[in-house]
Write a structure and sequence with these properties.
The protein is an all-alpha fold. The C terminus is likely disordered. It is globular. The protein has 17 helices and no strands. Helix 10 crosses helix 13.
């Protein structure tokens, strides 16, 4: 019996069927699937994005620049970037702590913690905003106390920050939990047994292995923070120049039929989204290096044991 025939006889039946189906699969089927995917992306993603930039420059570059440098528009840009710059580091601390606790330790209430982390994915952002109104509003649970001490939360920047933190805090934790679970605890336990402190173990062992997953989560969190509309719309009060983020300012301009200015500010938000997408693509390109870095400590530990 020839060698190919012997190899085929020892091959699993499932592999033989899969190879046979692959040979018989019509090429037009693959072409149709790819064309459908590209058509969907073109109609629902590329064309709307192009329409934003076309409408933004419809009346010329001068009109576009005047809409961008408008004091109200510039105030919304600064508020959006400032809230994102404050919310992302806070979520970073929470995400690392939560992921470390869930991936490295067993404790009572672990399932409940995971459920609470996923809560913003299930709750509408508008409901989250209403909850903050109920708690911190003028007639809310602590509204009287805050009013007596001249502290404003809702219809002010603190309320916007709280709403943004609420809707974005799952992203970093959810990116880090599977990465840390895949790493296990062997590398950290080895470092601690060799005399390293907890901070040294985190800085020299854990952080290098999670750095790309951490950056990936930060990018997603930042993108969500800049584009949040529902919860922020409820707690902001829509005060021009003070509590209007970029999405809220775009809505007001559009409702006033100032389409060119609305699309001009929207183009800035789209550019920020494209930059975030470029960073996400770069991190995905580096993922093979991340997987290799994650496997190495486990392979060494198994060989040493």
């Amino acid at each position: 019996m020839h060698a190919p025939a012997i190899a085929a006889s020892h091959e699993a039946p499932g592999a033989q069927v899969a190879r046979a189906l692959g040979r018989r699969r019509p090429r037009w089927g693959r072409v149709l699937l790819i064309a459908s995917a590209l058509l969907f992306l073109g109609v629902f993603l590329v064309l709307p994005l192009l329409a934003v930039f076309v409408q933004a420059f419809a009346n010329g570059v001068g009109t576009y620049l005047r809409a961008i440098v408008d004091p109200m528009a510039w105030a919304s840009v600064k508020l959006t970037l400032g809230v994102a710059a404050a919310a992302v580091p806070l979520n970073l601390v929470f995400g690392v702590a939560a992921a470390w606790s869930i991936a490295k330790f067993e404790f009572r209430g672990k399932s409940a913690l995971i459920t609470f982390i996923d809560l913003p994915f299930a709750v509408s952002p508008v409901i989250a905003g209403l909850v903050f109104i109920l708690i911190f509003g003028t007639h809310g649970w602590v509204g009287g106390f805050l009013r007596a001490h001249h502290v404003r939360v809702v219809f002010a920047v603190p309320g916007i920050l709280l709403a943004t933190i609420f809707v974005t805090f799952p992203f970093i934790a959810r990116e880090l939990i599977p990465v840390m679970q895949a790493q296990g605890k062997d590398a950290e336990e080895t470092a601690l047994s060799l005399g390293a402190t907890g901070w040294q173990t985190f800085r020299r062992v854990t952080l290098p292995n999670i750095r790309w997953g951490l950056l990936y989560g930060v990018l997603l969190c930042n993108a969500r923070a800049m584009g949040e509309f529902g919860a922020v719309s409820v707690v902001s009060g829509h005060i021009r120049g003070l509590t209007n983020t970029m999405p809220l300012h775009i809505e007001i301009l559009y409702n006033e039929y100032n389409y060119t200015a609305a699309f001009a500010v929207a183009s800035l938000l789209a550019l920020l989204a494209l930059l975030t997408l470029a960073g996400k693509r770069f991190l995905e390109w580096r993922q093979p290096e991340l997987r290799h870095a994650v496997r190495l400590p486990h392979d060494r530990t198994r060989r040493d044991s």
